[in-house]
Amino acid sequence: MKTFFLATALLFSNLMVWGTETKVMVRAKAKDAKFIGSSLGGAHIIVRNKLNQKILAEGNTAGSTGNTDLIMKTPKVRGASITDDQTGGFVATVDIDEPTFVTVEVISPLNSRQAQAVVSTELWLIPGKNILGEGIILEIPGYIIDILKPRTHQYIALNTIKDKPFLFQANIVMMCGCVIEKGGVWNSDEIEVKGILKKDGKLVKNIDMSWVSTNLFEGNHIISTPGNYELTLYAYHEKTGNTGVDKVNYVVFE
Question: In CATH, which of 2.60.40, 1.10.490, 1.10.760, 3.30.420 is domain 17-140?
Answer without folding.
Answer: 2.60.40
